[in-house]
Every structure is written in C-alpha cells, then in structure tokens.
Amino acid sequence: MKILQILYMSMNRAIKNTVLGLILFTAKTMSFAQEKSTLEPLITDRPDQTESPNLVSKRSIQIETGAAYEVFKNQNIKTENTTYNTTLVRYGLLSNLELRLGWNFDENKTKINNNRIDDISSGFSPLLLGIKTSIAKENNWLPEIGLLGHLYLPFTAGSDYKPDTTGIDFRFAFSHTLNEKSNLSYNFGVAWGNDSPEATYIYTIAYGYSLTEKMGAYAELYGDFPENSKANHLWDAGATYLITNNLQLDASFGTSITKGQDLMISAGLSYRIPSKNN
Fold this sequence. Notes:
Blueprint: H1 2-37, E1 61-74, E2 77-94, E3 97-112, E4 115-116, E5 121-124, E6 127-136, E7 144-153, E8 167-177, E9 182-192, E10 200-210, E11 215-226, E12 232-244, E13 247-256, E14 261-273
C-alpha cells in the first residue's frame, strides 16, 4: 500500500508540474505574441517604382516578391516580357543601414504579325546588391530622407540577359506625411547600365492613401531622362492589403505616357521576419 501511495503522490506531483509548466509556457507564448503584434505595419518598396526612405528594423529580414507581365507593341511587332520572380530581400544590419539583395527571372517572347517566333529569351537578370541608409527623419515640413545604391553583377545573369559591364544606380528617397490617411513620396537619382556609358536620370512621384486600416491605394508617375535619348514617362496605380503587420499582398497596373510600354500588370506579397529583440 505504501508503494502505491508513493506512486500516486509522485504521479500527482508530476501531473501538477506538467500542468503548471503548460500554463507558464502558454502565458509566455501569449506574451511573446502580444509583443510581436505591437510591431508597426511593414512598409515595402513594392509594388510601386518609388523607393521608401524607411529602413527595415535592425536584425529583421523583409522579403518582397511577386510577378509582372509587360507588353510592348511597335507596328506589327509585339513583345511580351514576363518576370516570374521579382524577389528583393532586405536585412536591417544597423538601425540606420539596410542591406539589399535582389534577383529576377525573366522570359521574353516576340510576335511578328501575330506569329510567335521560336527565339525565346529566358533566364536570371544580373544579381542586385545594394544598401539603403537613413539621412534624416521627417520634421514638420521637412521630409524623411534616405539614400539607396545598387550594383548589378553581370556574371550572375543568364546568357540571354548577361551584360558586359556592371550596372550601377543610386537615388535619394523622400517622404512627406500629408495627413493621417495620405502621404507623398518621390525619388531622384541616376543609373548606368545596358553596357552604355550614358547616364540616365531617374524620377518618381507617388501619392498614397489609406482606404482602411488594412487596405491602401496609390497612384504614381515615373520615368527617366537618358543623356542622348528621348525621355520616357510612365504611370501606374495599385493597392495593398495588410493581412497582418508582417504580411502584405499587393497588385498594380500601368502603362507608358510616351511611346513604349503598352501594359503592365503585377502582383506580389511581402513578409517580415522580425528579430527576437523586436
């Protein structure tokens, strides 16, 4: 009988300890989840062409990916470009410095008089390596300011998209809060690429509006001014939907104002992996 009593008391103590452990674990998990839910909604660099001056928080990873489809028509020639993977990975190295890594997989098809030619280009575009740093925070009428720079490495590209020289671009990013529901963002910069020494000056301007706490919309004008070629001007518009503070869906469409792009549609998602300290 004493052995049975000892076993009963031991089992009872073990059950109580297990229940207490589960309660403490649940409480700790709920507390951790509440801390995570206090994170600000993520701010992304997609789907528009305007880069935000906002940085990913320190030691957090943000993955922004999607797909895009473009159509270009020139008389009887129609070119279709599909980007199956527009992935950008952003990592907060410091509180004021973000590392950026991007890689696209493209496919290009051409039709002449509605007849598709067999020569299809496909493969990875040059790998993007970049940084973003914060210059100034928004202060009354003064905008938030950031600076971005990227290298495009030719040896990482597929044979169909491999340039002979390294591409480079940099731009300043600005953002104004107009009111609690809207903001104005714009970029100015310069780029060198496509095996040309010609500089191309870049501009973008985007107006964003919060339709609800979860859904936002934007309209944008953007383009470039090559040194020795005609300027290109385009527009697009789109919407974002915040599923959680760390997960966002987006969709957009647009076309060119000057001769060039006839249609662009895009869709994607962005996800943030917070650091343990966030």
